[in-house]
Design a protein that fits this description.
Elements: H1 7-16, H2 22-26, H3 31-69, E1 80-82, E2 84-86, E3 88-104, E4 107-110, E5 119-122, E6 129-130, E7 135-139, H4 142-192, H5 197-244, E8 246-248, E9 253-258, E10 273-277, E11 281-288, E12 300-304, E13 312-320, E14 330-336, E15 348-364, E16 369-370, E17 376-381, E18 387-398, E19 407-412, E20 419-421, E21 434-436
Parallel strand pairs: 1-21
Antiparallel strand pairs: 2-20, 3-11, 3-15, 4-10, 5-7, 6-9, 7-8, 9-10, 11-14, 12-13, 12-15, 13-14, 15-19, 16-17, 17-18, 18-19
Helix pairs in contact: 4-5
């Protein structure tokens, strides 16, 4: 390696060229030292260039490789299987909620028509459905049967008396005819002077007596015939009472209560059973005085029970009691109920009386996802089966009807025809992709 130039040599060169021209001064340096420095600079430059070239090649090559080898983003996959329902245009009703007790529309008290007889058999129990004319109870008819036999015997006697009186009347009538003929002959003789006037008068008296006898016999026949009719009436009355020993339902209905037991003595004022006529029940609902003006006769009423989810019926406002309770300031609204095996008198039910209606949009209540702030949102199905969370403003709720789920009115947030998720909404997030099944 050549020696490095000493400080004295540099100072000498500077002194020789006072102008400070280093280029001329360095040309004065001995050739060995100048050649060594130049090759060192060249080597350093070449090294730096190679390093920069390698670094650039790696950078460019690596970026090109990354761009070529990285796969395109995969489309999102479905996270859940759901069902959907369309937003429907429907008639939405404003309702008035009421509570009431189930009562019989017509409750009949059925009592025997024959008094003083022992109840022998009761053939129905509470809740039994009966048809018109069906036997409900039987009374002991032994006494009536004996009375009937006696009346029939007395009728036979009365009929015999009629026959006897009629025979006597016929005899008196024949006697009258005879004395009348005798009088006619005597009259002819008296005209010729053949008999005395006294004899003629006697025969005239006989005619009058025979006529009175005929009149009396006719009256006795009439009396005997009246006796027959009286006995016949007695027999008919006893026969009617015998038929009444079987107590029958006057109309079809359902037995509400059995008030008598076997062995009781019958009385027309003591009911044996009470009958719900035609099984027709009503809901006697209490409505505050301030809200009576919202209730109209004939308005539909949705009937539900807080204790029996199966009970969902449609009733109708039948009447409004004209008297408001002075203590509670409520009036009774009578709502007719359809026939149902689930209904029993005394049940406590809820009714939603329709007070007005309007057009609106509805969705199933299962589509709602309640939020912590008290609002609700739904998931709307979009393109590619991607769901979007959307807040909604709700209105009235519509109870389930048949196969249709319970619905809720949507006042803002949705449009008719859009589809909302109805199952699994609690597991969805905004932007999820779902699989829709029927």
């Amino acid at each position: 390696m050549p020696e490095s130039p000493s400080s004295s040599s540099l100072e000498a060169a500077s002194a020789f060229h006072p102008s400070g021209d280093e280029r001329v001064a360095y040309s004065e340096v001995p050739p060995q030292r100048s050649t060594g420095w130049r090759w060192s600079g060249v080597l350093v430059g070449l090294g730096a260039g190679v390093l920069l070239t390698l670094a650039g090649t790696r950078f460019l090559g690596g970026e090109e490789k990354t761009t070529a080898d990285t796969p395109a983003p995969a489309p999102p996959t479905a996270t859940q299987t759901v069902t959907v329902a369309s937003v429907l245009a429907a008639t939405v009703a404003d309702t008035l909620a009421v509570n009431g007790t189930v009562q019989a529309t017509d409750l009949l008290s059925i009592a025997p028509q024959v008094s003083g007889l022992q109840i022998r058999e009761l053939r129905v129990r509470e809740g039994d459905a009966v048809s018109a004319g069906q036997a409900l109870a039987s009374l002991d008819d032994a006494t009536l049967q004996a009375d009937l036999r006696q009346a029939q015997a007395q009728l036979a006697v009365a009929q015999a008396q009629v026959t006897q009186r009629q025979a006597a009347q016929a005899q008196d009538q024949a006697n009258l005819v005879e004395v009348q003929q005798n009088l006619q002959r005597s009259q002819a003789l008296a005209d010729r002077g053949a008999i005395s006037q006294q004899e003629l008068t006697r025969q005239q008296t006989q005619v009058l007596t025979a006529q009175e006898a005929v009149g009396l016999a006719r009256a006795e026949v009439t009396s005997a015939e009246a006796g027959v009719r009286s006995q016949q009436a007695a027999i008919e009355r006893l026969q009617t009472q015998l038929t009444q020993t079987t107590v029958r339902a006057p109309v079809a209905g359902t037995i509400a209560e059995r008030r008598a037991t076997v062995g009781d003595i019958s009385s027309p004022g003591t009911p044996i059973v009470t009958l719900i006529q035609n099984n027709q029940l009503k809901l006697a609902a209490e409505v505050p005085q301030a809200q009576l003006d919202r209730v109209a006769i004939g308005a539909p009423v949705a009937i539900t029970s807080n204790t029996d989810g199966r009970l969902r019926l449609q009733g109708t406002v039948q009447s409004i009691d004209p008297v408001v309770n002075a203590a509670t300031r409520v009036a009774l609204v009578n709502i007719t109920l359809p026939s149902s095996d689930l209904l029993k008198p005394g049940m406590f039910l809820r009714g939603d009386i329709t007070t007005a209606s309007r057009s609106g949009l509805t969705i199933p209540t299962t589509a709602l996802q309640p939020q912590p702030d008290g609002t609700s949102q739904v998931f709307v199905l979009g393109d590619g089966n991607q769901v979007t969370a959307r807040p909604v403003e709700l209105g009235n709720r519509l109870p389930a009807n048949g196969n249709q789920l319970a619905q809720v009115e949507v006042r803002q947030g949705l449009q008719a025809g859009e589809q909302v998720v109805t199952t699994g909404v609690g597991f969805l997030q905004d932007g999820d992709v779902v699989t829709v099944v029927p």
